[in-house]
Design a protein that fits this description.
The complex is a heterodimer of chains A (245) and B (101).
Chain A (H helix, E strand, L loop, with lengths): L2 H32 L4 H11 L2 H13 L3 H12 L1 H12 L6 H9 L3 H7 L8 H25 L5 H7 L2 H16 L1 H16 L11 H19 L18
Helix pairs in contact in A: 1-2, 1-3, 1-7, 1-8, 1-9, 2-8, 3-4, 7-8, 10-11, 11-12
Chain B lengths: L1 H24 L7 H19 L2 H4 L4 H16 L4 H19 L1
Helix pairs in contact in B: 4-5
The chains are: A mainly alpha (245), B mainly alpha (101).
């Protein structure tokens, strides 16, 4: 593998992620400032956590002065989806990938970096993920920091517009394979429909966004795995080589 | 405010463990077809679930979000890069909201 080339292409694909992160973390920074966190605290939090939903939820726990176990539990539930992503990524890495690479890749398992990492053809070179992290993680931290320091200088319109960058990117990841594969197309549509309908079901309405993502991901992927098992050549985005059965 | 740093440490440790355990514990290729299929479908399902309808709720007006969604799907369908699809969605939201918000 050409690590340098992969690192650079990771950086290139990391740019839209960094832009989207910047917008979201800027508003996170404003929220941090509102509960009295300093720029340094907020930046340290963003650098060590790199998770939007988790950090937003953490603010309400910090401001309430709630217990540390409560903090741990909330992060566990909100970020549990990363476990599924990490499991999927474990199959994308070459089996002989050394331990330290796995530890480092783990830091970068966010919705977005995961999204582009599973999207590379064939095996994942950890350096591709590092390239993306090298651009996206500073974007996330810098946005948080500036959000605290500058508060409301950046016009709301710009922040709002930037916030759809992440979603645009997700669509750019799921749509092209769905175009080629009817099962994936069906799955994408079903997932969106279920996601939309989920809060309309009375007893599900109170479930948090993070939990909703986990429940639907496990449910829909499991049904799809049973109904449409993936054999050999089809798994081109997930797998470069045919599986040996 | 050192208490804040304890909170930050707790959340960082929990979040990192969630991310790193499967990557380090699952070292071999999974042979079971159903499990492999499950993990193959996870990214598509999870990204779809996260995008819709959240994209409509992230903007000032759900119509600008919906327009950005439609444009992004169209451009992605035509094979445009991640970056151009993302930028087009942002620009569209900005322009539309100049008029309706």
């Amino acid at each position: 593998m050409d690590h340098k080339k992969n690192f650079l292409s990771g950086m290139r694909d990391g740019i839209p992620i960094a832009l989207g992160y910047f917008a979201v973390s800027f508003s996170l920074g404003i929220a941090c400032r509102n509960i009295g966190m300093t720029a340094v605290e907020s930046t340290v939090m963003s650098l060590t956590n790199l998770t939007s939903a988790g950090e937003f939820a953490a603010l309400s726990i910090i401001v309430a002065g709630a217990g540390y176990w409560e903090m741990a539990l909330s992060q566990l539930v909100i970020n549990l989806r990363y476990m599924l992503m990490s499991a999927a990524l474990s199959q994308k890495l070459a089996p002989e990938t050394p331990f330290y690479h796995r530890l480092l890749v783990g830091y970068g398992v966010t919705d977005e970096i995961f999204g582009i990492s599973v999207n590379v053809p064939g095996r994942l070179d950890p350096f591709y993920t590092y390239g993306a992290v090298a651009v996206a993680s500073p974007g996330w931290a810098l946005g948080t920091c500036l959000g605290v320091v500058l508060g409301n200088v950046l016009p709301d319109r710009v922040v709002v517009a930037l916030s759809v960058a992440l979603y645009g990117m997700f669509l750019a990841i799921v749509v092209p394979p769905a175009k080629k594969d009817r099962v994936l197309a069906l799955l994408v549509l079903a997932s969106m429909a279920a996601s939309w309908a989920f809060p309309l079901v009375p007893f599900l309405a109170g479930i948090s966004g993070g939990m909703k993502i986990i429940i639907l991901t496990v449910l829909i992927s499991a049904v799809a795995a049973v109904l449409f098992p993936v054999h050999e050549e089809k798994g081109e985005t997930a797998e470069a080589e045919p599986c040996h059965e | 405010m050192s208490e804040t740093y304890i909170y930050i440490a707790v959340m960082a440790v929990v979040t990192y463990l969630i991310r790193v355990l499967p990557l380090t514990l699952i070292r071999r290729e999974i042979k079971n077809v159903t499990l492999r299929s499950f993990l193959y479908y996870v990214p598509y399902v999870t990204l779809s679930v996260m995008t819709f309808p959240a994209m409509m709720e992230s903007t000032g007006s759900q119509w600008s979000g919906l327009a950005a969604f439609a444009a992004a799907v169209l451009l992605a369908w035509r094979g445009f890069s991640l970056f151009s699809v993302a930028v087009a969605a942002c620009v569209l939201v900005f322009v539309i909201e100049l008029f309706i918000c």
